[in-house]
Amino acid sequence: MADTVMVEIPVTPQAAEALCDPKRRERIGKLVSDMLRPRSPGEDSLAAIFAPIKNAARADGLTDEEIEAELATYNAKRRL
Question: Residue 35, CB half-sphere, CA atoms under 13 Å: how many?
Fold first, then answer.
């Protein structure tokens, strides 16, 4: 990636271990950059990652409300 800078962010030990691989670190850096500064207004990398997951949940019969409720429960548990 052109015009990159190094930043320090706290991650879990498992994430730090995974980031030892330079190619993975570059891909993660690009993902973070794209999430924070999408190239176009309609582009959202995080939404693109979750879209197929959400579609699979819908195919299994879950509604959008149920999916959002599951995500909210998951997020609440992680904050404890």
Answer: 11
Q: What is the pTM of this model?
A: 0.48
| Residue numbers of the domain that contains 55 | 44-80
The 10s digit of each residue's pLDDT in 18-66 is: 999 999 999 898 888 877 776 666 667 677 788 899 899 999 999 999 9
- 55 token code pair: 């579609």
Same structural domain, 32 and 50: no
For the chain, the domain total comes to 2
DSSP alpha helix (H) spans, the chain:
13-18, 22-36, 45-59, 64-79
